[in-house]
């Protein structure tokens, strides 16, 4: 009797003291996820698993940094290929992706469909395909979609899909397309409104709306040098939104002393403003 009691106590002690396994999260996307034209691309690549073996850190590594600071245990993986949408990943990368995940963050082509800019049909089709694949492995998987930003090169240059329209319009159209996909695929937990947060940063006066005519004093450039990809501030804002939406934590909780701010040579005062933008966008209806 005493021996059985001792065994029960020992097992109870182990169940309390052993750490819980890390939550797994997978990021699937392209250069907008891995941080092209920014130091974010190679940021802390050793803290995440690049399934393609390219040594990429990107937005997933920033997410990992925020989560670790918040005391959240995430095992972060990413699979990214430049210039493609979810259709490419599903056709060519299923061997890497078809496994059990707790959470996934999916980001498709910057115009939704390269052949039909603004059309959400392809995004919806392959969001559904990924949903079916992931749910076979884990019926409780949480799927998030990252709605990306307006491209200045497709707004201010002639002959482009959004030429002559306000720079905010593309972000609105892309967000609407992702909402369509989320509504049609019940497994999607939420959309991460990155493009709408960019619009909010522009509307608030924090970010310059037109990089082609120079950056106004006191404003930041959310775009990279090609006016297409994001700057380091743009990717940081993306990571704040993903962190807030996926974990439910307030982006303001990241603070201005988060370690990657110094590593990436960012201004803490601007980071505080970006956190407020992310907070406000995630709190919006």
* Beta-strand residue fraction: 5-15%
Q: What count of helical segments does DSSP give?
A: 11
Spatial strand arrangement across the major sheet: 2-3-1-4-5-6
Classify the secondary structure makeup into a structural class: alpha/beta
Structure explained in plain terms:
Helices cover 44% and strands 11% of the residues. It is an alpha/beta fold and 285 residues long. The protein has a single domain, classed as 3-Layer(aba) Sandwich (Rossmann fold). The chain has a six-stranded parallel beta sheet, sandwiched between helices. About 5% of the residues have low confidence.
Helices and strands in order:
Layout: H1 2-17, E1 23-29, H2 31-34, E2 49-50, H3 58-69, E3 74-80, H4 86-92, H5 94-97, E4 103-106, H6 121-137, E5 142-147, H7 168-184, E6 188-193, H8 194-203, H9 232-247, H10 259-263, H11 268-283
Parallel strand pairs: 1-3, 1-4, 2-3, 4-5, 5-6
Features:
Rossmann fold, 285 residues, 11% strand, alpha/beta
Please summarize what this structure is.
The chain is of the alpha/beta class and 285 residues long.
């Amino acid at each position: 009797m005493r021996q059985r009691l001792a065994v029960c106590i020992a097992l109870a002690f182990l169940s309390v003291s052993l750490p819980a396994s890390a939550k797994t999260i997978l990021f699937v996307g392209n250069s907008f996820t891995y941080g092209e034209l920014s130091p974010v691309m190679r940021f802390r690549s050793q803290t995440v698993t690049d399934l393609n073996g390219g040594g990429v850190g990107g937005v997933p590594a920033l997410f990992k940094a925020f989560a670790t600071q918040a005391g959240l245990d995430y095992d972060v993986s990413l699979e990214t290929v430049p210039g493609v949408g979810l259709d490419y990943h599903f056709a060519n990368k299923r061997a890497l992706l078809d496994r059990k995940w707790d959470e996934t963050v999916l980001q498709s082509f910057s115009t939704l469909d390269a052949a039909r800019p603004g059309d959400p049909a392809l995004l919806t089709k392959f969001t559904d395909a990924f949903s079916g694949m992931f749910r076979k492995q884990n019926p409780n998987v949480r799927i998030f979609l990252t709605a990306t930003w307006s491209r200045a090169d497709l707004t201010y240059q002639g002959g482009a899909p959004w030429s002559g329209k306000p720079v905010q319009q593309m972000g609105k159209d892309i967000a609407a397309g992702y909402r369509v996909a989320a509504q049609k695929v019940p497994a999607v937990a939420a959309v991460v409104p990155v493009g709408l947060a960019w619009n909010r940063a522009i509307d608030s006066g924090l970010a310059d709306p037109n990089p082609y005519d120079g950056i106004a004093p006191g404003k930041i450039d959310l775009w990279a040098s090609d006016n297409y990809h994001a700057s380091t501030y743009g990717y940081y804002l993306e990571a704040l939104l993903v962190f807030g939406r996926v974990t439910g934590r307030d982006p303001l909780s990241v603070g201005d002393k988060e370690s990657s701010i110094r590593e990436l040579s960012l201004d803490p005062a601007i980071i505080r403003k970006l956190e407020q933008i992310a907070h406000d966008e995630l709190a919006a209806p």
